Amino acid sequence: MSTAPRPDDRGRDRDAEGRARNARPRDGLGRPLPYGTEGVERQPEGVTRTPDETVAQAQALLDAGRPFHAHEVFEDAWKSGPEEERDLWKGLAQLAVGLTHSARGNLTGGARLLLRGAGAIGQGKWGERPYGIDVDGLVGWARQLAAFLEEDGPTVDAARHAPRLRGDSRR
User: Fold this and answer.
1) How far apart, in whole angstroms, are the C-alpha atoms of residue 63 and residue 50?
2) Cα(159)–Cα(62) distance, integer angstroms
């Protein structure tokens, strides 16, 4: 039996259990493309990864200019991880979506999501560097990029403006 989404009687993509699953191809920023168009490889949904695997995979996607896809990796972590860490992973997903919106040209929405994500991860209830994640550095990055968007208003390049999750000084 195929697990690929198939249209229902109303033309909506559904998985074998009847849940909505958009099967349209997407570009690198997660925008839907017409059926039959070649898009980028999508992240599988519902994957349980270790925290280190989550951070490494999300960083690789961010570095490749695919923050929408990094958000999906973080979303899996917040849905499958321990309750006490959900705000961390959800906040990281919001940072990735904020970068996505910024790269798509939605500067106001991007700035808001960046600040919301910074607020979520900046709560500090998970320790100084959970899984090596540079929380303080990410909060600073998000606030700086949000201010840049609000002041200068340019569309950003997702790969060039991507954060370093573990804070190494490559940028």
Assistant:
1) 20
2) 6
Mean pLDDT, the chain, rounded, equals 87
CB 92 within 8 A of CB 117: yes
- What length does the chain have? 171
* Residues ≥6 apart with Cβ < 8 Å to 87: 120, 121, 123, 125
- Both tokens assigned to 98: 């904020």
pTM of the model: 0.84
Place of tokens 């540079």: 134
Residue 146: which residues within 8 A CB-CB, separation 6 or more? Answer: 98, 110, 111, 112, 114, 115, 118
Task: Provide the residue type at 86 as one letter.
Answer: R
Q: What is the pLDDT of residues 129-155, one digit of tens each?
A: 999 999 999 999 999 999 999 887 677
Instruction: Look at 2-6, 60-64, 124-128 and tell me which has the smallest mean pLDDT.
Output: 2-6
Query: Considering only CA atoms, which of 125, 26, 37, 18 is closest in space to residue 72?
Result: 26
